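Table 4 source record.
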Amino acid sequence: LLEVNKKQRQKADNLYLTLAGLFITALVVCNLIANKFVSVDLGFYTFTLSVGVLPYPITFLITDILSEMYGRKKTSRVVLMGFAALLFTILILWLGKQFAAIESSPVSDSVYNAAFGNSQRVIFASMTAYLVAQLVDVRSFHFWKRLTNGKMLWLRNNASTMLSQLVDTTLVVGVLFYGKESFESMSGFIIDGWLFKALAAFVDTIPIYIIVWIIRRQFNLKWGQEIS
């Protein structure tokens, strides 16, 4: 751990709050838009995905950056903050449903219910998967960090994310579609969702190296060293 001076502490706190804010924003948004399913053609393969999957890898990129720079305890705190934000989102969606739309409202009750009527169920399913998967991600990341003595960032970034994304995708699809979709359909959703997230984890290897290098340079940190 690196002890920092007062000026560096303010910079470290501001960075921590910025990353936490981005994490919670991406998390809430991906749950709100999760009801829409699309096909994403990357040329070599066409994925069938919930659009909520598209911003979701950002949350794992951020937790990996937080784990690398601030340690497991502070990263777990952000994960729990995200869980609280999802609970609050469910409350707000429920509250909005309790009041009838006025005649001139751009969004009618039917449109609101069509867009968010299933969001509470989606978020409940996602919350279960999210809490388990994010904690798996944080613990797995630090397992690989200890094992490699702070080296091989690419290994812990990819290994932790791919494992936790498999847990997350399986739990979400299982909770949402068990008893409603065939095993074959559910398997397809799981495979496509996990492959897309695994691909995203592989692609973000270069960005995480760049971001971590910039942060380390700002605080004069050695590789594997965390901000105290």
